[in-house]
Amino acid sequence: MKKLLIIGASGHGKVVANIAHDCGDWNEISFLDDDLNKVGSSLIGFNIIDTTANLELYIDDYEFVVGIGDAYVREEVTHKLLEMGAYLSTLIHPSAVIGLDVKIDQGTVLMPMCVVNSSSTIGLGCIINTGSTVDHDCELGAFVHVSPGSTIAGTVKIGSRTWIGTGARIINNLSVFQDCTIAAGAVVVKSINSPGLYIGIPAREVIK
Q1: Active site located where (predicted)?
Q2: Annotated binding site for acetyl-CoA
Q3: Residue after which a domain boundary falls, among 89, 115, 149
Q4: Do the domain assignments include residue 208?
Q5: pLDDT at residue number 208
Q6: Are strands 46-50 and 42-43 parallel, antiparallel or unpaired?
């Protein structure tokens, strides 16, 4: 019997649980969450059974996925799981469209109606959110979040932990540095070579 534990019982976690349910690959889907007030309750019908303080009790019997939106926390928890020998599942919603020669690393979640086109590479622990598009020959680093409705054109490189905001656009043949935030609705028309917040059309860095 296959069992899945989702780390994080909040908004993103419940969407991950819904995707796992739709995939139909697990006989049991449960949560771990460090909010003691949540333990013993349920979220959209799935039990919150414990906190991550007791991870070692579940390593041998469960597959894992990290249902936390924050890239830095997701990275920390993912590496902890890997160090403990956990099996990290990759979740791909049945409605997602995946091209040929696509490589998707473990712990990544592909949400409903997203598209990843041919010969693209998606790194460890990424989120490819609802209705987003990653076109051909793209390379996404670890823990990248491509938000709902955003579009990444062909042959784009995205650095680790970068957040592509809702409805953002990145034109083809560019690179975006690690640890960037591309604001909702922004349009990136030239490569970004330093971390920061980028907004507007065309996207420009916000200098604090």
Answers
A1: 136 (proton acceptor)
A2: 145
A3: 89
A4: no
A5: 72
A6: antiparallel
Instruction: Show binding-site residues.
Output: 10-12, 69, 145
Task: Print the domain residue range for 194.
Answer: 92-198
> What pLDDT does 104 receive?
99
79 is catalytic: no
Tokens of 18: 């819904």
91 has pLDDT over 90: yes
Look up residue 162 and give its amino acid: T
Confidence of residue 82 (pLDDT cuts 50, 70, 90): very high
Assign 207 a pLDDT band (cuts: 50, 70, 90).
confident
How many residues are present in the chain? 208
Q: What CATH code is carried by the domain that includes residue 107?
A: 2.160.10.10
Given the residues 21, 79, 93, 136, the one annotated as active site: 136
Whether the predicted model's global pTM rises above the 0.90 cut: yes
Kindly report the number of other CB atoms within 10 A of residue 140's CB atom.
29
**Is the same domain home to 84 and 99?**
no
Q: CA-to-CA distance for 65 and 101, rounded, in angstroms?
A: 24
- In the three-class reduction of DSSP (H, G, I as helix; E, B as strand; rest coil), residue 116 is classed as strand
Residues tagged in the binding site annotation for substrate: 10-12, 69
**Which amino acid would we find at residue 52?**
T
DSSP 130: T
